[in-house]
Amino acid sequence: MVNRIFLLLLVLISVCGEETGMINAGKAADIDYSDIAGEAERHKNDILKFLNQTRVQEKYKTMYKCLLSKLLGSTRRIVSGRNTSIAAVPWQVSLREKTYPICGGSVITDLWLLTAAHCLLRARSSELTVRLASSWKTHGGEMYDVKECFVHPRYVSKTKVNDVGLVRLYTPLRFTEKVLPIKLVARESRLLADVPAIVSGWGKLQEGGPSATYLQSSTIKTVAMKLCKRTGLDRNAIDPPSMFCAGSFTQPSPDACQGDSGGPIVYDGVLIGVVSWGLGCARGNFPGVYTRLSHPVIWDWVNGYISKKEDS
Ligand code: 4AZ
């Protein structure tokens, strides 16, 4: 049994070694891995146990993400996300009202989480909790209580202009490989079109469908504002200074969906936006809309809070 697991690992390593450029396997592309994939899936707990040993992670660091995604990513979803370990997006949090998951969010300092304004409007701080450090929506990791939350003073619920909010915890977080802050984009930095960005969350796997129990993420591309505005049935609703679009115009069209709101979209290791709204999900003719964090009106407000020296 153990030998079999090592054999499976060897195969995964040869695939990942090639993908990461560490091994030049030459003919490896001709091999049909479909049987192995099923077997790897069945043994994934044992393989994961092995991979999760820090000693192993260090040795195969560059391959580690590929190996994990090969194991966890075999089930593709309608929103075209894939199962993703929290260690790959350790800034991702699940925001809950009492115990019910309502939105995503991002760790930006040891005390502050960033989310969407519309996630914070109905709930009272005393009823909000946060789950961190777990890939599972309903268990694992750690739960934190919320001390205070703040909605951008210029958030407009009808148009979702300035859709950003902040959540302050009672106690500072202890950073681990599963809980790490994500760097906020620079003020007024220009976001190019067509750059790949990672969006993640436990939202719906398809429009009107069930939501994810295991964390999903997808790499999508930023969409030029001209194109995004042109697509819209809702064309007047897009406010370029405080919003940007990401997704694609082809099917399948990876996209955020209900429940992903408030969650992160990250480009080049930097948090550029917050999942805000869209016209349905993954329809292929209307990209998702995100809060533009580099916008001075948004950036100044966020940084004003998080850089304040705390006296409590
Ligand atoms: C929502 O309802 C929602 N397709 C979030 C993102 C998108 C659509 C809906 C983007 O929270």
TrEMBL record:
Residues 78-307 form the Peptidase S1 domain. The keyword Kinase does not apply. SMART domains: Tryp_SPc (SM00020). Residues 1-17 form the signal peptide. It comes from the Eukaryota. Pfam families: Trypsin. The keyword Hydrolase applies. Keywords: Disulfide bond, Hydrolase, Protease, Serine protease, Signal. Transmembrane segments: none annotated. Belongs to the peptidase S1 family. This is Peptidase S1 domain-containing protein. It comes from Loxostege sticticalis.
